[in-house]
């Protein structure tokens, strides 16, 4: 990957709102053309119009449910038909679920696993041979800062343990792919102010505990613009008051020097 990114092509999933939409704008600001994906057509088209207008790049919206293999195949096919190549994949689409384990609906497990883990691995598998052929490319996976906690945060154990798996997969993938000049980066965001966190109990009561998407956008930009022989394996961007630290460091701790 060279640092001149103008004219490159990126697929970004979950780009119709939240972190994905913010990232899509940032990536487009580097002159990169986009294929953006999400399930709901309306917000996706709206995002595509916004990005085209602001950044003067080409944007292809493709409705896609990342839990469905045929949708992922269609996303890759449509991207190649439009742009002739794929240089960058940003796997970001995700769902959350907050339950004490004994109350969590059983259907949740499949949805979480298919969206937050299998969807990522499958889409990478569908593009990886193109990147290998080009001997360059970048894959960015939206993991989660919750993977920094051991044990994973209470009431999020299925979500977080799948993200732990994704993080392990991403690191392993880097070692397999580095000889091909392919970068693989995991981003570990803290709790960010999006629709995904809007419904979470306890966590969003105090908004000072939430980050905006800005630090995540900067992390993506950093990952894409480091020199060609460098790969940031993992970038954690955590609000200093992120609630997962609560079991370890009390939220209201008094620092001895303050
Ligand atoms: N927000 C946080 O605090 C936080 C912290 C750490 C990690 N993350 C991770 O960051 C990523 C983005 O989260 P967010 O907060 O931006 O969420 P969000 O605001 O809820 O946005 C989620 C995006 O993913 C899409 N999506 C959801 N399920 C999909 C599916 N099956 N197929 C295709 N697209 C799908 C949504 O569009 P449709 O509904 O139209 O499909 C939407 O564009 C997730 O992977 C999440 O786990 C978030």
In terms of DSSP E residues, the strand content is: 5-15%
- What is the CATH superfamily label? NAD(P)-binding Rossmann-like Domain
Give the second-level CATH assignment, the architecture: 3-Layer(aba) Sandwich
Q: pLDDT below 50 for ≥5 consecutive residues: which ranges?
A: 247-251
Measured between the Cα atoms of the first and last residue, the distance is 45 Å
Rg to the nearest angstrom? 18 Å
Number of strands: 7
Helix content: 40-55%
Query: What's the tally of helices?
Result: 7
Q: Report the bound ligands by name, code or SMILES.
A: NADP nicotinamide-adenine-dinucleotide phosphate
CATH class: Alpha Beta
Number of domains: 1
> What's the arrangement of strands in the largest beta sheet?
3-2-1-4-5-6-7
How would you characterize this protein structure?
The protein is of the alpha/beta class and 258 residues long. The longest helix has 29 residues, at 106-134. Residues 247-251 have low confidence and may be disordered. The chain is globular. The chain has a single domain (9-245), classed as Rossmann fold (3-Layer(aba) Sandwich), CATH 3.40.50. The chain has a seven-stranded parallel beta sheet, with helices on both faces. It has helices at 18-29, 41-55, 69-83, 106-134, 157-177, 195-198, 214-225; strands spanning 9-13, 33-38, 59-63, 88-91, 137-142, 182-189, 234-237. The structure holds NADP nicotinamide-adenine-dinucleotide phosphate. NADP nicotinamide-adenine-dinucleotide phosphate binds next to α1, β2 and α6.
């Amino acid at each position: 990957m060279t640092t001149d990114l103008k004219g490159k092509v990126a697929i970004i999933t979950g780009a119709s709102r939240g972190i994905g939409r913010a990232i899509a704008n940032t990536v487009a600001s580097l002159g990169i053309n986009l294929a953006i994906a999400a399930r709901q057509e309306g917000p996706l088209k709206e995002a595509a119009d916004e990005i085209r207008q602001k950044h003067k790049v080409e944007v292809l919206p493709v409705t896609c449910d990342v839990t469905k293999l045929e949708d992922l195949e269609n996303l890759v096919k449509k991207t190649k038909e439009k742009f002739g190549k794929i240089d960058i994949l940003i796997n970001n689409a995700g769902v959350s679920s907050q339950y004490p384990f004994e109350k969590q609906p059983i259907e949740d497990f499949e949805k979480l696993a298919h969206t937050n883990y299998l969807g990522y691995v499958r889409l990478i598998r569908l593009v990886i041979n193109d990147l290998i052929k080009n001997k360059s490319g970048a894959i960015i996976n939206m993991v989660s800062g919750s993977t920094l906690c051991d044990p994973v945060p209470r009431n999020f154990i299925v979500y977080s343990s799948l993200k732990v798996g994704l993080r392990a997969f991403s690191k392993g993938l880097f070692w397999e792919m580095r000889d091909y000049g392919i970068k693989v980066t995991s981003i570990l965001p803290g709790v960010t102010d999006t629709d995904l966190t809007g419904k979470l109990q306890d966590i969003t009561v105090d908004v000072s505990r939430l980050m905006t998407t800005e630090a995540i956008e900067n992390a993506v930009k950093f990952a894409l613009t480091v020199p060609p022989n460098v790969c940031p394996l993992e970038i954690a961007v955590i609000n200093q008051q992120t609630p997962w630290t609560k079991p370890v460091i009390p939220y209201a701790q008094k620092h001895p020097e303050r």
